[in-house]
Amino acid sequence: MTLSAYVGLAPPGDKGSWQMESKGYQFWTQSDQKGNFSIKNIRPGNYNLYAYVPGIIGDYKYDNIITVQPGSNITLDVLVYEPPRNGPTLWEIGIPDRTAAEFYVPDPYPNLTNTLFDSSPKNKFRQYGLWERYADFYPNEDLSYTIGVNDYRKDWFYAQVTRKIGDGSYIATTWQVNFELKDRPITGDYTLQLALAAASFSELQVRFNDGEARIPHFTTRLIGRDNAIARHGIHGLYWFYSINVSSFWLRQGSNTIFLTQSRATDAFQGIMYDYIRLEGPPQISL
């Protein structure tokens, strides 16, 4: 059974994503469980067609421009989306639903609790000041998560934010993902599929087994202006990266991925993760 997809028409643009295209109207709908959809009452014009499916990483984009004319009725052929995948899943963190709602959201400070919102997971993230709780849980060392031991629902903080120190300034934070490879890495590229639910004036740097490497193995560079953390949101704009991981960066036995949010001038620079998955090379067998 096909999962229900969100399907939309957005004006062609140079932003690279329908999320940042604001030069015209967008028209969206939700497909049925078989993937059928219909979008009505569209303004005439040229459009790109996009789609995404909760539970599946990445975005679909139709190859051709769709021209809507007054009174027209356009029928498309079967549209097939092949989600990004280069090899078998070795491990994963989170749920690919474009939000950070499944991760650990702390209780608010008692003096800041807003009684308009209940404490259910649906509303818990709306409480004020939750980003400052990170320093309470990790006053000296940052989050360290071990695959097969930790539970992302309890042990993965909902936002990677800066840490405020004694003089009132802020410092960058580096999270660690620890995992085991029981065999020697197979020569070739592994893949780290990395989806972010939000980013605010931040830069995520990724290093493999060398947290002090001067040049990261991957960096997003400066991204994000959605400010979801400060606005008590659980997602902003979606960012997706498919990162090639050389087998030379990995080793048999214990491995660590270092995730550094390197921009740190205020409390609200940070990211929210949506989903992380490490894939083996295509030829690996599990």
From TrEMBL:
Lineage top rank: taxon: Eukaryota
Signal peptide: none
Family annotation (InterPro entries): Carb-bd-like_fold, Galactose-bd-like_sf, Polysacch_Lyase_4, RG-lyase_II, RG-lyase_III
Record key words, sorted: Lyase, Signal
Entry keyword Phosphoprotein: no
Record-annotated Rhamnogalacturonan lyase domain positions: 5-76, 89-278
Protein name: Probable rhamnogalacturonate lyase B
Source species of the chain: Ziziphus jujuba (Chinese jujube)
